[in-house]
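A.,

Following up on our hallway conversation. Structure tokens first:
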């Protein structure tokens, strides 16, 4: 991640925080890459510089979805502390999954609890031989 924090100065310029780069499989914003990598300190600095939490990578993953998938509590908490926190709870990926659904599928209980404490809502639905929840 050293390329994110300009090697010469260690600074992040506001004009660069939403710039994309080619990562493992897709083009990511710097914020999305930091979320995927679990770099909560970089996420906080990017958010302070005005990084846009509403920009997904080319796979349709938003920063909150990335952080929820990796179980990074500090990163999720930092993302939910920004002004657009409530709208982030309804962001979906290309498969229609929200941060809550992604965290539940990965078994990240602390992330589920955090999302629920920030206002994420769901209901239980019984299907034939299983139970699932639907976020609303």
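Then the amino acids I'd put at each of the 136 positions:
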């Amino acid at each position: 991640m050293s390329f994110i924090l300009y090697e010469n100065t260690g600074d992040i310029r506001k004009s660069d925080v939403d710039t994309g780069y080619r990562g493992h499989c897709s083009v990511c914003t710097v914020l999305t890459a930091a979320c995927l990598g679990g770099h909560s300190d970089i996420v906080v600095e990017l958010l302070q510089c005005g990084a846009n939490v509403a920009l997904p990578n080319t796979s349709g993953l938003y920063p909150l979805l990335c952080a929820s998938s990796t179980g990074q509590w500090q990163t999720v908490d930092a993302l939910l502390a920004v002004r657009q926190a409530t709208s982030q709870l309804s962001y979906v990926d290309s498969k229609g999954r929200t941060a809550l659904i992604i965290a539940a599928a990965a078994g990240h209980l602390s992330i589920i609890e955090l999302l629920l404490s920030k206002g994420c809502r769901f209901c239980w639905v019984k299907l034939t031989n299983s139970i699932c929840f639907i976020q609303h």
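The CA atoms of residues 3 and 10 lie 9 Å apart. Curious whether your intuition agrees with the design.

B.
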